[in-house]
Design goal:
Layout (H helix, E strand, L loop, with lengths): L7 E5 L2 E7 L6 E5 L3 E2 L2 E2 L4 H15 L3 E4 L20 E6 L6 E7 L2 E8 L3 E4 L1 E2 L9 E2 L4 H12 L7 E4 L3 E2 L13 E11 L2 E12 L2 E15 L1
Antiparallel strand pairs: 1-2, 2-17, 3-17, 4-5, 6-14, 6-15, 7-8, 7-13, 8-9, 9-10, 11-12, 15-16, 16-17
Length: 225
C-alpha cells in the first residue's frame, strides 16, 4: 500500500537506499523579494550576483548554476565567445537519432572526447571519418576546436547537429551572455544527521539584469540503508 510518504528506491554499488519525505510540513517554500538570502542581494546586478554565487557555492558545496531556458545553438559562431567560460560542450544530432559527442574542456583545451548514444566511449579524436584538419582532437585549443566546428558545419552531414552548453561552472569567470536570461537555478544539500538529508532548490529571477526575486524550496528526506 502506498502511504503518505514518497518512497524512492534506487541501487548504488549494490546497496539499497530508501529516500522519503519525513515530515508533513515539507516542502517549505519561501519567496524573498526584499533584502536577500545567503548573501544574494535583491537589486544587485547579474554579474554581482554571480560573484556572490561563487562564494556561496564554496560554503554550500555546489559548483555550478543552471541558466534556465537556454536553448541549444545551431551555429558555432553562437558559442565562440562563451567557450572559455565553460568546462564542456555537447554536439548532438537533431534528427531523432540518439548520438552525441561530449567535449570536456580544461585550461582552454579539449581534455577528453566522449562519443556515442546511450553509453559513451572515450576517443582521442572525432569525427573518425574526416581528415585531421577537420577532426577535433584531445589537446586542441578552444580556438582550434571552434575553427574545426566551423569546418564540420560546412559539411551537409553535420549541419543537423546542435550545440549545448552545460550548467555554468562557478570556478570560471562570469559569462556576460547569462545576463540575457531571467532565471537561474541551483541546488544544494544539507546533512541533517545520520539518516536525514535536507535539499534546497533555489530559483533566482532577474528583471532588467538585476536580482528581482529568490524562490527557495526546502525538503528533508530520510535515508534508510
Amino acid at each position: 500500500m502506498v502511504g503518505k510518504f514518497l518512497t524512492i528506491v534506487f541501487s548504488v554499488f549494490g546497496l539499497l537506499f530508501l529516500s522519503s519525505c519525513i515530515k508533513e510540513e515539507f516542502p517549505i517554500i519561501e519567496t524573498i523579494e526584499k533584502s536577500g538570502k545567503w548573501g544574494l542581494n535583491i537589486g544587485d546586478s547579474v554579474e554581482d550576483v554571480y560573484g556572490q554565487l561563487q562564494v556561496l557555492g564554496l560554503e554550500k558545496n555546489f559548483n555550478q548554476v543552471s541558466v534556465l531556458y537556454r536553448k541549444p545553438y545551431t551555429n558555432p559562431e553562437d558559442v565562440r565567445d562563451a567557450l572559455p567560460y565553460y568546462n564542456a560542450l555537447t554536439m548532438e544530432r537533431n534528427d531523432g537519432q540518439i548520438q552525441r559527442t561530449y567535449f570536456e574542456l580544461k585550461e582552454e583545451k579539449v581534455l577528453a572526447i566522449h562519443f556515442g548514444g546511450g553509453l559513451l566511449e572515450e576517443l582521442d579524436h572525432w569525427p573518425l571519418e574526416v581528415n585531421s584538419e577537420m577532426a577535433i582532437a584531445v589537446g586542441d585549443s578552444i580556438e582550434v576546436l571552434y575553427q574545426k566546428l566551423l569546418l564540420l558545419y560546412q559539411q551537409p552531414s553535420y549541419q543537423n547537429y546542435i550545440l549545448i552548453l552545460p550548467g555554468k561552472p562557478l570556478s570560471k569567470d562570469y559569462d556576460s551572455d547569462m545576463g540575457n536570461y531571467s532565471e537561474w537555478g541551483f541546488t544544494f544539500f544539507v546533512d541533517k544527521g545520520p539518516s536525514t538529508n535536507g535539499r534546497s532548490t533555489v530559483r533566482l529571477y532577474f528583471n532588467d539584469e538585476k536580482l528581482d526575486k529568490i524562490q527557495h524550496t526546502y525538503e528533508e528526506f530520510e535515508i534508510v540503508r
